[in-house]
Every structure is written in structure tokens, then in C-alpha cells.
Amino acid sequence: MTLAHLPVVTDPELSCVEASDLCLSFGATPALRGASVTVVTGEILAVMGPSGSGKSTLLHCLAGILRPNSGEVRFRGRRIDALGEEERSTLRRDHFGFVFQFGQLVPELTAEENVALPLLLSGTRRTQALGAARELLAQVGLDGLGRRRSGELSGGQAQRVALARGLVGRPEVLFADEPTGSLDSLNSEHVLELLVAATHQFGTTVVMVTHDPRVAAYADREIVVRDGKATSLTPGGGST
After folding, report:
1. Which of 93, 123, 186, 225 is the Cys-Cys partner for 49 at CB 3.0 to 4.6 Å?
2. Burial environment of residue 193 by CB neighbours within 10 A (0 to 12, 13 to 18, 19 or more)
3. Contact at 8 Å (CB) between 223 and 37?
4. Domain residue extents for the chain
5. Which secondary structure element, helix H or strand E, spans residue 161, and what is its range?
């Protein structure tokens, strides 16, 4: 059975993404030292830790961006760290969404084109993709701003475009790496409220890296990464 034909997991007691004993070094510098974490289907998990602790590296392994030196990563029960780059790229395109700290919008594209980009890359017709993008932009409070480019948007508006882009494909898992790190407190709250509302509406599982306890407070559960290992701060999942 291919990944595309795996059944969607809807039981909230089942794990969506699971990592076991991950180790990864960059040259002689270890980033992960036996990190393990279970992400429960439908939850918002905050991954906390100081700079350089390995939290972003852990997220990138969970998302299939990086391959660990040892250990296993499973998505819906299937091991993904052993997949080739092309298969992992397809997995990220078809099942995952991403939001990064600085949005990383394509400056040459309009807001609606940026949001539609994941759908266009997966082969969706342009008119249908743009229609879905406009609908989602309206949901994040940007109705009527779809024709603006990133340079014509405020920081908060641009990050809401990035959030809409991450959600437009209705991903099973949204990976957010410091999604409000470049925003002031008011815009941070707005983006986080939209993220929580949208992910609950779509039934999306969220893994969110942050160093800010105020951001982590929006999550259902928190883990902390220190010295390349993960420890659960709140009940509800297995982390070591």
C-alpha cells in the first residue's frame, strides 16, 4: 500500500507522528541525542527550548526534511525516515503544511498566488487553486488583499498569508517553526488565534516550535528540548 492510499487516522488516541531515539549530528556537533516524541492526532504540540537546543532540528526530522543518523520517524504508522528524497518530497507536498518565522513568501507572486502555490505544485487547476486561496485569505481576515505582493503587506498580514498557504492543502500535519517570532505581541496573538481556530476547523495536527511560553500557552501540550533530548511538560503523550 502506498502512502497516498493509507487510511486517514481519525482516532484521537492514536499517534499521528512518532519519533524514536533520534540522533543527528552536523559534522562533529550533535543536534539530537536520542530524542523521542509522540504527536497525537488532532493535537497542537508546542516544542520549546533555548536557542541551539535541537528543537528546530527535531521538527525538521518529524517533517521528513532532515534524515536522522539513527532512530526512526513514523507517520501514521509508516516509517518515513527511510524513504528516498523524492518520496519524502511527495509526502511533504501531499500531507504536510509549513509556516516559518519570516513567512518566506515568494516576492514576485501576489498574496493569493502565494497561498495557491502548494495546490498548483500538486497539479490543481489554476482557477480552482486561486479560488481556494481567496476563500482562505478571507478566513484569516485578508479579504480583498489577494492581489497585493509581500512588499505591500504588513508583517502581520504577510504572516497570515503564510498561515493560509500552510493550510490551503488541508494538511494532516502543520509544522510551524517560530510562526510569530518576527511579530509584535498583538499580531502574534492574532496569528495564533487564527492558527488554533483553523486547525481545529480542519482537524489538522500541529507541531509548533517556539521559545516563548506565551505562544506555547495556545497549545494542547508542551515538550521541551534540551541538549538534543525531548521531555514532556504536560500529560498526554510520550516523550523522552
Report:
1. 225
2. exposed
3. yes
4. 13-232
5. helix 155-167
Is the whole-model pTM more than 0.70?
yes
The span from the CA of 167 to the CA of 186, in Å, is 22
Q: Compute the radius of gyration of the chain from its Cα atoms.
A: 17
Q: Check the CA dihedral 194-210-19-62 and report its sign.
A: positive
> Can you point out the beta strands (E) in 65-136?
70-75, 78-79, 96-100
Per 3-state DSSP, the chain is made up of helix, strand and coil in percentages (nearest 5) of 35, 25, 40
- Residue 197, number of CB atoms within 10 A of its CB: 12
Q: Tell me the CATH number of domain 13-232, given options 3.40.1260.10, 3.40.50.150, 3.20.20.150, 3.40.50.300.
A: 3.40.50.300
Position 5 scores a pLDDT of 38
The dihedrals phi and psi of 18, each to the nearest 5 degrees, come to -140, 130
Alpha-carbon distance of 28 to 5, in angstroms, equals 40
Task: Strand 70-75: give its sheet, edge to edge.
Answer: 29-40, 15-26, 70-75, 78-79
Report the distance separating Cα 198 and Cα 67, nearest Å. Answer: 29
Q: How many helices (H) and strands (E) does the chain have?
A: 7, 10
What single-letter DSSP state applies at residue 178?
Answer: S
Kindly provide the b/e burial profile for residues 72-100, where b requires at least 16 CB atoms within 10 angstroms of the residue's own CB.
ebbbbeeebbebeeeebebbbeebbbbbb
